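thoughts on my protein:
***
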Amino acid sequence: MNIFSRQLPVIYFLFISFCLLVSCRKPTEELPLLFHFYVEKDEPQPPFPMLTFDTVFTSIGSITKAFTVHNPSNNDITTTIFLAGGKKSNYSINVNGMVGTYQNESYFKDVTIPKRDSIFIFVKVNINPGNVNEPFFITDSIVFLTGQHKQDVKLLAYGQDARYIYADPKIGYKVVAGLPEHDYPIQHEHWTKEKPYVVYGWAVIDSACSLTIEPGTKIYFHAKSGLWAYRYSKLEVKGTLDEPVLLRGDRLEKWFDTDCTQWSGIWINEGTEVNINNAIITNAVTGVQVNPLITDGSITITPNSCTKIENTIIKNTSDCGVWAMFLNVEMTNCVITNNGSCSVLLEGGNHTLKHLTIGNYNQLERKNPACFVSNKLSAFQNDTFWETKADFINCIITGKNENEVAFYQDKKTDFKVEFQNCLVKAKKDSAYFNTACLHFDDPKFTDKDKLDFKLLPASPAIGKGKPNIGVDFDILGNPRGAQPDMGAYQTP
């Protein structure tokens, strides 16, 4: 949590105190409330309603929000509606679909609200760059002037200046780290936390180049955008427990927190050195996609390349959480949840997965299991197979489907898969599970609906992990000890 987040309650309290002070003036106190305002609630909010906007990036603008003005009396009331900030306001308003008069879109004269009826007020905010690293807040109010009677609705938006990365519209991407001989100024790029990054299109790391993302960095992707580690490049995400790296869509209103398909995801090609640690990857189509670049039906395989992901949460994807084809993946202490398709899909390659918590309770209908391992490659129309090796150790794999682990094996192609000391929602009659695995046991998560997958004291996964596998701490930094728990979280 950054400094501004900790200060938000204080700022909010000061703003409310100001509203209370203003509302205590005698003229307002002596007059009755003509209108009732329904602002983000089903109940009216007298005497000082307020419409708030979550963080809005400068130069982008907000979504349109609306509230209702209700006339509870038995008489029609005619009022004038305007923004207190006038033409200089960062806000713009629309009244029941009407634009303003007097060449001022924020001024509405003689608006009649019929008796016992309501009108809608639509509000947007645009914030100019403030050239400041910390977020700031923008205030105004919508005034309702009826004769000598004055009411208002307070407006509050949090603004944030950002670094913007715009792709070339002709090719759909922008190289953020490229070779100088190819006319790119930066070969080894560093992204830092001072300001968030907002990406339009694909941000590309070119071959022989690198991108390092420092702790606390926040990266927001517009629709159909993503981060692309091109073949033989390097990507290092260096989050920490206290300052994770955030990668998500650029719509920050609360409703979008659990929305998927906001951006495309992270795409990793062959020969790429990738280390992702302490990251939160959310709201994408596919969280992390690891596969070679396919050109003219041909691919280049680099068996030694490996994508390493540790202490990371991948959630709220419309497709897979992690999809690896051909190329190798190592994952440790990761949570993968709320995915529209498989949480983990492995097709070919050599994979090691330790202390994962996979809990796929996505509310949409899902035909695929949470975990699927296959030596048949779905990206090809013809039957293409590749040797597959996958070791799952001390993992929890569960979800709302009847069976959450499945396999496809072509007997002519190597297929070596083993689950050691895992809690799985899967049948026992499989040669892939050792005798220490638990089948169909309720892991007893703290609150799976809120995606809190820490284990309750009665969980059967506590102390049932395989010891001495080289994982000394859990995703929260708690020591594993001599009797590790299954999953990403260790019970203190």
Remarks:
- Residues 1-31 have pLDDT under 50 and may be disordered.
- The first strand starts at residue 36 and ends at 38.
- The radius of gyration is 27 Å.
